[in-house]
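Handout, section 3.2

Students often ask what a structure token actually looks like in practice. Rather than define it abstractly, here is a full record for Branched-chain amino acid ABC transporter substrate-binding protein. The first block is the sequence as you would receive it.
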Amino acid sequence: MLQNKKTGLFAGTLISLSMAISSIAYAEEGPIRISYIEPLSGPFANVGDAGLKHFRFAADKINEGGGILGRDVKIIAMDNKQSPSESVQLIQRSVDDGINFVTQGNGSNVGGAMIEAVERNNRRNKDNKVLYLNYAAVDPALTNEQCSFYHFRFDAASDIKLEALTNYMKDQEDINKIFLINMDYSHGHFISERMTELVDERLPQAEIVGDVMHPIGQVRDFSPYVSRIQQSGADTVVSGNWGNDLSLLVRAIDSAGLDIKTYTYYGGGLGTPAAVGPRGEDILHQITEWHADVNVDEGLEDYERWFQEFKKRYPEIDWYYHRIYNQMYMLKAAIEEVGNAEDVDAIARALEGMEFESPTGTITMRAKDHQILQPMYISVMDTDAKYDADNSGVGYRTVAEIPVEQATVETSCNMKRP
């Protein structure tokens, strides 16, 4: 019996060792995997699905070009149900599966929880670290007091967007009464507080006449909020809403017949243009790092082919997240510089400070806080745009191009590096 037990233990050890060796070999020779942790069910499922299609398209394009270090890129979809706690569990699942990269963007509350989880794992599990690539969570805290060596943001932070937006708005003589409406979480609270400060500093002719927070993903009828906008006498609305919370808001403003300029972060896609259609012309604005009519006649033919091919594959949506292009190709460049897709610390060092030639010009991943610095564009809906948005028949026309130096805000980050 003792001999049998020893034989069983020996065999079990061999099996475990074999599995470990197979896992290592798979990690080094199999696809480079990125966990996509986003809502794929619930009220924001359409946003999660659109982002997934963007990432898988970009991965396919990289793979068509030979992959990264000769290895394919594979996007692993994980449904976080828009929950910070679910997201933390999915990071752990990624670590257990040997996945070194996670990406997320919808919800800065989720992003904050993910930074904490990644930091905790990388302190405790130094041989199985993970890098968090953030393509849309824009609360400035994520690259200020909560900044992390293992977190990189490829979207402009909210303070950068408001810096650029108010520099434009201060020269618009028809902006006098501003109504703020935002989702009730960290992202919305920052917009409320910072926008109030910037109006005082830069728009002496204007005043805030309303400042409302609403539950995230729970409002089905925005007409009571629109009634408050109407009663306030506002001529301008500023909102950081996204997904259905923006589409439903814009539709309610349109249904009420309000001829009111609306400045958004995310008005260019994911259902919002279709919610208002041609009636949004000269009214619905957005501030973004790109839109389809940016410099379309100035040598961007390759990128035009890129988003035209995306549209052919996914006719129901547009190529909207230019930052996903930047994120995927900057990650590719960093891994190829290191020569190893498993050395997370070295890949992070290759990313920080990286200058990258994007279709919109040179962009830089600021080393101090891992915040991308890039040109920004303010645009407005226009029926004469070359490309429409959301199959709405209306596209976007640039009204202001903000160079990098005017789309930069200092950081208070005091980063701890390994």
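Discussion prompt for tutorial groups: The first helix runs from residue 2 to 29. How would you have guessed this from the sequence alone?
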